[in-house]
């Protein structure tokens, strides 16, 4: 289990995160939702260790900092919102960077890379120059890279993915394809914490939804419990109708 | 895939390097035939076998041609290799020791050392003097690299414009410092300082060759431990950290390595710009940006490149010899402008 416990973060004397407690099991997909500036990316940076905060982050009951960096990288992979790579690597080479700690043979690496690239549905661009790809294609290459990073199952415990708006640049087909993939990965003990702006994607795919507003967790639980008209009004300032999908049963938000 | 070209590029560069070295040994006021230079070279190492070689030839080879050729090769390799490392460190293909002010910082350090040693003891070319100059040049390089890295680093990576502007400011500051030193210096010291700023291989000797060879060994020994982390660093600092890279160690190591290479090069041959800019760019065009291949091949091409530049410097206006820094400036500056034109759409 990945846990962030009692996280408080201030920036320029303003509270960015207040008493945040979030947990992620390795067999679930958890959606993190909230308006712009609610503190979603800050929470990611606290969990990944980029930002120092009061409060602690545990992975499998051990403090994050007590893991060695390569061991941590084996269990926790992070997809940033955007990447700044501006050197002419091929897409294949970018994914290969995710394999940097691995001692596996060249052949095995190539097999893993072609597998994760097909998961991210980007295998046909493997030999293209990364900087020439479209935004969505770049996003899928980066996805393949973090899949490659956590490919090997650790001897014990689960693996965790933190994805910051992974669907932002993706077309509708790939948005659904990605979330379906995350559901499948959860069955292989790879849990995902996903920042999503599309509440309907969250409602449909997430096992649990965590709602962040003004740096506080204002609701968390199953999507049909969390998404209520009053919450959407108070957090997102939206007047919405919520109906239940006629066949699948998950809530659908109509605005 | 570009990586599949690595063996071919390596083979071509190695053969070219040997050929250019041979040329470099042959050409000069006293020119040798290829066979003569090989024989003279042989006489240096196994005098018994080549006992009938002209003593003047041996002297020219031992004291002039060979140290100059080797120094040129080593400095070229060191500068190109550290240029490639620096571009990885800054995550920017426009970073070059001369452009971001590291060379000037090293030159100020070197000038300071020359000046100081002239106060304490009359300037002479002893080992301790050369080491002192190299040490000061190294320190100057370290200070400037850290400074530029800190000035230009933002949360989202290194800002190109800030990096280049910081380079301009530091170059101006170092220039002012050198000017002040030259103002108070006597004639001998002044000549030395001016010679430094032009960059020349005329004074090559075996102490310099040894010093640069040592630096080369250190640089090449670090290629393997830094290559993969550098690839990760190109994705971004956070991304590299998430991949398990010790980013702080990597940055410190690279700063020290590049300052060492630049400092020692500046101390031995003065300011030679653009090798670290042009060479890695050409290698990237040939085999792509993967540092596992970019770093060693840059070293190899850098050696060829500076040897060629020095050959031009020696032969272009024979018998007058141009400083090799001038030749590199004539090749490098237009190339830099070409790169700027090409990349300006990415820079704001």
Automatic annotation (TrEMBL), chain A:
Residues 2-239 form the ABC transporter domain. GO terms for molecular function: ATP binding. The keyword Nucleotide-binding applies. Coiled coil: none annotated. It comes from the Bacteria. Gene3D superfamilies: P-loop containing nucleotide triphosphate hydrolases. Transmembrane segments: none annotated. It holds the Pfam family ABC_tran. Keywords: ATP-binding, Nucleotide-binding, Translocase, Transport. Part of the ABC transporter complex HmuTUV involved in hemin import. Responsible for energy coupling to the transport system. This is Heme ABC transporter ATP-binding protein. It comes from Motilimonas cestriensis.
